[in-house]
Design brief:
Number of domains: 2
Largest sheet: 3 strands, parallel
CATH topology of the largest domain: Rossmann fold
Structural class: mainly alpha
Strand content: 5-15%
Shape: elongated
Number of helices: 8
Number of strands: 3
Distance between the termini: 22 Å
Strand order of the largest sheet: 1-2-3
CATH class of the largest domain: Alpha Beta
Order of helices and strands: HEHEHEHHHHH
CATH superfamily of the largest domain: Response regulator
Helix content: 55-70%
CATH architecture of the largest domain: 3-Layer(aba) Sandwich
Radius of gyration: 16 Å
């Protein structure tokens, strides 16, 4: 998805795609390195951001990571941009318990509360309670919001 697409615009198109087809993974593809473009696309639901001047190998890697449920940020992005994005997300996560971080990571991997309960050896109701606490603490209004926060924080990287 081009971050500066004519007409609707990359962030708006990405948000619409994610709304209509929540399981669709979006990879932003742009010449823009500025934080506003990167955070706009990631905030709209893109799972990765790839610069147009990337080498072929990086393009293949980005597509594979995003398609398999992971995230990707172009190595060519300026360090301050990446640090600002990740730093903001890490600050959001500062108030979480270790268990809540683990539940957030598993939710971002697409696991259900029942699957999380089984993996962490807790009841599905306890897993659901952790999810509710995450939404309250992170001011998230949907599961998609939680996943975006986890992606921005680098919790979904391989």
């Amino acid at each position: 998805m081009d971050a500066e697409m004519p007409g609707m615009g990359g962030p708006a198109a990405t948000a619409e795609i994610r709304k209509r087809f929540p399981s669709t993974r979006v990879l932003a593809y742009s010449a823009h390195r500025e934080k506003e473009f990167v955070s706009g696309m990631l905030g709209a639901g893109a799972a990765g951001y790839l610069l147009k001047d990337s080498l072929f190998e990086a393009i293949v890697e980005a597509v594979k990571r995003v398609a398999s449920g992971g995230s990707y940020l172009s190595p060519g992005l300026d360090e301050p941009v990446v640090a600002a994005l990740q730093g903001r997300s890490r600050n959001e996560l500062g108030a979480l318990t270790d268990r809540e971080r683990e539940v957030l990571r598993l939710l971002a991997q697409g696991k259900t509360t029942k699957e999380i309960g089984a993996e962490l050896r807790i009841s599905p109701r306890t897993a659901e309670r952790h999810r509710e606490n995450l939404m309250r603490k992170l001011d998230a209004h949907s599961l998609a919001d939680l996943v975006r926060i986890a992606v921005r924080a680098g919790m979904c990287r391989d």
